[in-house]
TrEMBL record:
A Pfam family the protein falls into: DUF2848
Protein name in the entry: DUF2848 domain-containing protein
Domain of life from the UniProt record: Bacteria
Record-level Gene Ontology MF annotations: catalytic activity
Species of origin: Albimonas pacifica
Length: 227
């Protein structure tokens, strides 16, 4: 399975048929140690064990990558996390935004297991990484959830809180760089008010230098737990 991405650049727009051969989740990829420790504490409060090393690279089935506007999840204990998304294709990198949607109950038994249980929604729009590389730290991530019928800010912060993706990629792949066909989600930030589920998740990456943003939304279809 693959997905069609829309490349928006300073030279115009074009489409990219991206066929993922690998999907990598870079967990605990924070540059801000205090913020990362806060996120670790959030998850510890839910019963998730502390990571043995940071960052940790979780491999997930490439088929989990999706641009669909809905996703199905077992029960009501899953939630999204906004993350920068990096795509390697044709020897070049592209950046967008995605969500490391995770089953929080399964996470208490095993983080790798929980990562595999949910689809990883991403926006269908991307930018050439080379266009943002020199001002990466100026980019801003945000997410919202819907509570009691109202859209509520859930996460927000600059990229200074996360490792530069070039550093993250080097730690994962070394000097060879990210192989073509690989998609990588590159870390998240603490939730405002704590981690909690929502039937709607909205995520955004903003580039204030070039005055543009990518925003996407997906709905969660809850499947019953039969036993």
């Amino acid at each position: 399975m693959g997905c069609t991405l829309r490349i928006t650049s300073r030279d115009g727009e074009r489409t990219l048929d991206f066929a993922p051969s690998a999907l990598v989740i870079a967990g605990w990829a924070g540059r801000d140690r205090e913020a990362m420790e806060h996120h670790i504490a959030e998850l510890e409060a839910l019963g998730v064990p502390r990571p043995k090393e940071t960052p940790t690279f979780y491999r997930v089935s490439a088929a989990r990558l999706t641009t669909a506007p809905t996703m199905e999840a077992i029960g009501e204990a899953s939630s999204g996390e906004v993350e920068p998304a990096i795509f390697a294709h044709g020897g070049a990198l592209y950046v967008g935004v995605g969500s490391d949607h995770t089953d929080r109950e399964a996470e208490t038994h095993g983080v790798a297991l929980s990562k595999q249980m949910c689809d990883k929604p991403v926006a269908s729009e991307v930018w050439p990484f080379e266009e943002v590389a020199d001002h990466w730290d100026s980019l801003i991530l945000r997410s919202w959830i819907v509570e009691n019928g109202e859209k509520v800010l859930y996460q927000q912060g600059p990229m200074t809180g996360l490792l530069d993706p070039r550093d993250t990629i080097a730690r994962f792949a070394g000097d060879a760089g990210l192989p073509d066909g690989t998609a990588m989600l590159c870390g998240t930030m603490p939730a405002i008010g704590g981690i909690r589920p929502s039937g709607t998740f909205v995520a955004e990456i903003e580039d204030p230098v070039l005055s543009r943003r990518i925003t996407f939304q997906y709905e969660i279809v809850t499947l019953p737990i039969a036993g």
